[in-house]
Amino acid sequence: MKVNEVAKLVGISVRTLHHYDEIGLLIPDQLTESGYRIYSERNLEQLQQILFFRELGFPLKKIKEIVTSPDFNRLEALRLHEQMLLEKKKHIDMLLGTVAKTIQHAKGEVQMSHKEKFQGFDFSSNPYEQEARERWGDKAVDESNAKAKQMKKDGQMEKFQEDMNQLYAKLAELRHTDPASEDAQAAIGEWYRMLGQMGSYSPEAFKGLGQMYVDDQRFTKNIDKFGEGLAVFMRDAMAIYADGLQG
To answer: How many angstroms separate the Cα of 232 from the Cα of each of 195, 207, 209?
Structure first.
């Protein structure tokens, strides 16, 4: 198949396929004398794998590492996709239930507790652990993981998660105010202390984490579920708070 035929079949742009070729992620098996890319059945199978990984939030660099590895097993990868997508479906179903109940609550048909309003939002796990290791080192991440494991063992994780969701909601209410204001800085100070329960954050690391909330669209998407623009507000408030700690 030619590149425009593949693009039409899959629903992605020709430019995207060209980019995948240029970075060595998906190289067509044939190139005509005129320079046209020709995709084989094997290439289409590779593209399906790539798009599964993309759907699950993997960055292109990581996808390339996985699919070009000599140890890559397509069947094992498909089983992994199935498992991860089922987990994602379970999470989405829970969020849909929260949305449906919130609509009923807004119409006055049912009552909703504060806990129920945030059912399905889960920030206790870290799907970006490798990126965190690259940014802050193994020691900081291992320390955070150990604390999280101990909290689960002690039965404290659910309460911690509930407190975190409530603080997100509180920050969302402040997101249209000045991030340097007294109320905003007090709330972001709570955020700093809450993160401190999971690991040690230097002012520089705390500021860098806030920047990641905006630079990484996966973080932005999750945080902005509490209110559009919350990630940007938190980044700005965290930078101001970190500068104050260093000063």
So the answer is: 18, 12, 12
What is the three-state SS of 219-231? HHHHHHHHCCCHH
The predicted pLDDT at position 151 comes to: 57
- Are 137 and 106 part of one and the same domain? no
Q: What is the pLDDT of residues 134-165, one digit of tens each?
A: 544 555 445 555 555 665 666 666 777 888 88
Same domain, yes or no, for 82 and 106? yes
Q: Which of 108, 112, 136 is nearest to 201 (CA)?
A: 136
Distance CA(190)–CA(205), nearest Å, equals 16
pTM score: 0.46
Q: Is the dihedral of CA 117, 122, 124, 130 positive or negative?
A: negative
Residues 106 and 177 in one domain: no
Name which of 238, 246, 243 is nearest 185 in CA terms.
238
Does 136 lie in the same domain as 234? yes
pLDDT value, residue 150: 63
Using alpha carbons only, how large is the chain's radius of gyration in Å? 22
Enumerate residue ranges in the chain where pLDDT < 50: 126, 128-129, 132, 135-136, 140-141
Q: pLDDT value at position 39? A: 95
Tell me the residue range of the domain where 85 lies: 73-118
Q: Do 227 and 126 belong together in one domain?
A: yes
Q: For residue 236, which phi and psi values (nearest 5 degrees)?
A: -65, -45
